[in-house]
Sequence to fold (982 residues):
Amino acid sequence: MNNILRHPLTIALTALSLPVCSLEAISDREMSTVAGQAFITIDASSYSDGTGEWAGQYEFTKVNLGLDIETLMTIDTLKVGEFDRVVGEDGTVPMTDQDGNPITQNGNLVAHDADLIIENFGLGRVTDYKDAVNADIEEFRIRDPYIELAYKVENGVRQIAGVRIGFAEAQGWLSGDLISLTGNLNGRIEGPASVVYDQNCNGQGTASWFQCVELGLADALGTQLVSTIDLVDGAVGTVGYSYGAGRELNEDGELQNPDSPYLDVPYLKRASWAGVPAGRSFTAPGSALEFIIPALTGSEDCTVTGTPACFPLTNFQSVYIGDESVDFENGGGATGAFVSLQTSSVPWEDFSGIEGSDRVLTQRGAFLNIAKFDSNSGVKYPLNLDLFSATNGTPREATCVGSLKGC
Amino acid sequence: MMNKLSTFILASIAVSSFSHADLKALDDHEMSATTGEGLGLALDNFVLDTEGAELSVTGIRSSAGEEIDIKWTSLYVMGEGSSEGTVRTPGQIGSYNHPYVIRTVRGSAGLDPNDPLYNEKYAQISNDLALLELATDEYQSDIQNSETFATFSYYQGCVWGQPGCDELVAEQEITAELDALNSSKASIANTYSIGLGTLESEMNDYYQSEIVPREAVVAQEQTEYDAEVVILGQRLNTAYDAYEAFMAIRPQADCEFGDNCTGLNGSACPTIGGGACRDARTAYNNSYESYEEQQSVRQDAYNELIEARKDLAFANNDSDSFSAAAGSYIEAVSNVEEFRVLCGLDSGDFNSCEGGLITRKEKTKEGIESVSVALASGVERRDGLDVGASFEFAVNSVNPNGSTTPRTDFIDINMKGLFVDGTAFRLWSAPDEQGDDELNAEIRLNLFIKELDISVCDPTVCDNDLAAKEASTLNLDNMFISLNLGYGEIQPMRLSATSDGNFEFELTKLRPGDDIDTNSQEEMQQFYNDYYENSPKSFISISDVRIGNSADASLGAITVDGLRAQYLKVTSRDL
Fold:
């Protein structure tokens, strides 16, 4: 056999349990239930339906690992995509302090130094963390993680365009000081109309008398206000202040944020604030005032009729991935979560299950997708806030025994 | 087959120190302290090159069950500087002074640290247990030790010795990082005029008197609200069932669900024989009214829940309520937690900082300074290995419309300057919960690669166009993986197989030793603090990721700093 060694080789990764005690033969019946487990599969796909910077020929190779993982894991600092970005380019937002004041160097706005910076990152939590005798672990659960490579083919030359690590399903608490975030963090904020009314119509705030009449009526009717939230630019006094990525359209399809500098970017880069982006309104689904509320509650300059609508991400150090009311085995896990790194624009396949979703459009750099997903009981969001506590923040879930973080 | 192992020298070295002088019999005490000392291994002038031999790998399938044809088309292991395996450069795997070893040793837990048999590496494994250790070469010198050199390289940001990477900047980088941490620490300490212990005492009092009762009220209101929501749902279903029953009897009734159905609005029942119709209509109207009443009850419950939540949020966030006069309770919690991150969980004083992130980074800085001094003095680091492999995958690519197209994927991996010193696998047997023996393990894996290049270009295209190949190759500089799994008997790694043929890997929950009273808060908290402070964390870093070699193609560094699994269980399953 010249230079060719052709042996069919089955790679069987069999973990050895080394029973040091007696070995017992298994019966034929028992043996019949044992099979080589195919816990690795490889899928290939292609995509060429993109437009703009996502046009062209993409190929993907996805390695699926059949694994069930339960863990309590912490990382002191997680930093991905540490390269230069210029504020204002590609949706890069200015770095701010906790109050939203932009930070400058030599008179210039600066961005965080990496696309993703998460300190005191944790998956899972410790319950009864102040009780060292009875403290216990509530694991973060992952099923079927995968690694996927994206290739871009140009002029017959194939190059790696990106790599992502994701999970078919994931459930549990994800914690961390979210210093810089690039990607999607979808949330939902709700509260009674009284919160907006109280803050604007009891001798304070900026709402007009007419708005107060309507809000008072909404309050009296027990109206629930609801809005989705996303990453926003929280740098007070800058051109992009309070805007999110993309276009905000009202029910008639009219553009509500024409002055946004982020109209044409798919997501913000190096953001440290989340909230109701300028131009987006609260809604009151099912209410008699369903058609009035959006007009009263449009977000502008990070406020909704005087109520703060933007919040530093460090206010929210824990988010629940998945549906907390449903067990993991019964489908409570979130789908579609991933972290990726791209050398150029990549249209990743969207596994969130949301109706109509097809591709997650990513650009050069790192990307974290903690997005809404479709569970058996409807669309779920990883970040769920109340209007009255969003401004102040909520405590972190503990990841140590004896302290919330730092171990 | 033309595989070649050039100049293959296997040397086994007895690691035991032995004397050429008189041999004396050991007494029982001396004998009890003796273990089999092990075997050393070194490969000198080592070259492995498959030179075009191919290996087919079968058994891997796609999700659709199609067999994927995988060809392993090349493999080489040579000394550093082999130009991707094209120049046969002999390499070293271990050396006579720094061999790989296989040995059995006793644990050191229970021994006095001054005992000559005590070894810190085995300090978490009982002295009455023997363990088998497989370890790679080890170096005391910081410049030869790949862990410290890799950390230096990460802060340096480039591959030391390559063009443009000859100015020592790592020390400045780590100093700046450490300065920022110290500044954060000082900022927190300056926020409070009282000591850390006093502040924590005030926080605890406030938590018990102000927060806990409000949390209880919120929990109670939440329970009541949830119960009202359930009743609301039940009444809605009842009302809808009653509506359907009425419409089944009187389908021509002009009445929508939600309306009050009467004879005046198109829901009249026949005058004669309409008793059942009227009963059904009344049942629907009553049940819908009951549903509406419950809506009001639910709204009241919701309002009370909101008030309770507001009250809790106020107690958490109101600066005036908390007596420390330096911000709210929730700010104090955040500051104290942050101080512990910086200075260790044992911190008892704002003025001391003897653990935590700052201490760890100070040790990192010492290593970087040591490497920098050595390099500035002209000390050279040893060469590593070059390792490369190429694969071809014949796959069926799924198009967006569901059709498939045959495709061949190529992957060519070249590692330039690979080191694994400081790696060890330790195995021992110990009883499990049922008293049966099981395999326990501890892993210390150090993998440092100065340059890792990955190309996916079709060789028939790129081998004839080297510029295109270079421009499309993914380059990872200074890739370092330091994986530390297991912490002796406190947190062993267990390997086993399930009855259905799957493997199971577990990093167990922490196991306090017999000397710890598991009912004592103080002893258990100290046990956890010792684990957090001493069990090694894991690190992954890459100083630069880029496609090609142009400056604007860089994606910068990747850092996973201080990873720890307090619990991890991985079970395979059939896909």
The first helix of chain B runs from residue 28 to 32. The longest strand of chain B covers residues 437-455. Residues 4-144+382-485+537-566 of chain B form one domain. Chain B touches chain A through 111 residues (CB under 8 Å).
